[in-house]
Amino acid sequence: MFVIIGVLFVTACVIGGYLLEHGKLEVLFQPVELLIIGGAACGGFLIAAPLKTIKSVVGALLSMLTHKPYGKEEYLDSLRLLNGIFYKIRQQGLVSIESDVDQPENSPLFNKFPKILHNHRAIGLITDTLRLVMTTTIASHELEALIDTELEGHFEELITPSKMVNFVADSLPGLGIVAAVLGIVLTMAKIDSPPSVLGNSIGAALVGTFLGVLLCYGYVGPMGKNLEHAAMEDLQFLVVYKVALVSFVGGAAPKVALEFGRRVIPHESKPGFLEVEEALRAQKK
C-alpha cells in the first residue's frame, strides 16, 4: 500500500511542481525515449540475471505490493511453536518429535501455526536442526556456527532481488543520457530549421536525461531499498529461531531458551516478558 502511495506522491510532486511553473505537460510526454530507456534497462537485466534470479525478482516485486512486516503476533506464534517443541522433547525425549520433524505439515505442533508452516525457510531451519540433534552429538557452539552459515546462504538468496533492482536503477541515468544523445543527433539533422523547432527538439532530447534520473532515484532505487528491508526482516525472523534452538540444545530450560529468542526480536515487534508468559499459559490451557 505504501509503495503505491509513494509512487503517486513522487509523481504528483514532480509533475505538479513542473506545472506550477507553467511547464507544458506534452513536452514531457516522450514515449519513444521511455521505450529506449525502459527497454534497454530490461534488456540489460535479462543479460545480467539467470532465469531463477529473474523469477525471484518478479516474485519479490509482486509481493512488495502486499508485504506485511512481521508483527508481535507472528513472533508470539514463533515462541509458542518453539515452546511446544521444547516441552515435548523434555517430557518425552527427542524421539517423540521424529514424526513432527519428518512431516511438519501433518504435525499437531506445527498445524496450530499455519503462517509459520508456510514459511519454508523457518520450517527448514527448525526441522533440519532437530534432525541433526537427534542423529548426532553436535556441540552447541558447532550448531551455532552451522546455522550461521545456513543463514548467510538464506540472506544471499533474500537480498538478490534487491541487488538486481539496484543494478537496474544504477543503469537508468546512463541510459537516460543515451536517449538524450540520440535526441541531439536527431536535432542536428534539423539544424536548418527555425529556433522554435530546434528548441522543441532539444527539449524533447533532454527529457531522456530527466526520465533516467527520475526513474532511478524516484522509483526503481527506492524499490530496491524496500526489498532490502524485507530481506533483513526475513533474516531477523530466522535469527529468533536460531538463538532459541542453540540455547535449548546447549542445555537451557525451555523458558530460558524462549527468553533468549525473545530478546533478539526487533524492539517494535518484541512482546513483553509478561505477554509471553500469558501466551504460554493460554497455550497450555
List keywords for this structure.
single chain, 285 residues, mainly alpha
How does this structure look, described?
It is built from 13 helices and no strands. Helix content is 81%, strand content 0%. It has one domain (30-285). The two termini are 38 Å apart. It is elongated and about 90 Å long. The mean pLDDT is 91. It is mainly α and 285 residues long. It has helices spanning 2-20, 25-28, 31-48, 51-64, 72-92, 98-102, 108-111, 114-117, 120-135, 140-188, 195-249, 254-263, 273-284.
Q: How many beta strands in the DSSP annotation?
A: 0
Tell me the distance between the termini.
38 Å
Helix-strand pattern, N to C?
HHHHHHHHHHHHH
Q: What is the radius of gyration?
A: 27 Å
What portion of residues is helical?
A: over 70%
Helical stretch tally: 13
Sheet with the most strands? none
Low-confidence stretches: none
Strand pairing plus helix content: what structural class? mainly alpha
The overall pLDDT, averaged over residues, is 91
Count of individual domains: 1
Shape: elongated
How much of the sequence lies in strands comes to under 5%
SSE arrangement:
Layout lengths: L1 H19 L4 H4 L2 H18 L2 H14 L7 H21 L5 H5 L5 H4 L2 H4 L2 H16 L4 H49 L6 H55 L4 H10 L9 H12 L1
Helix pairs in contact: 3-10, 4-10, 5-11, 5-12, 5-13, 9-11, 10-11, 11-12
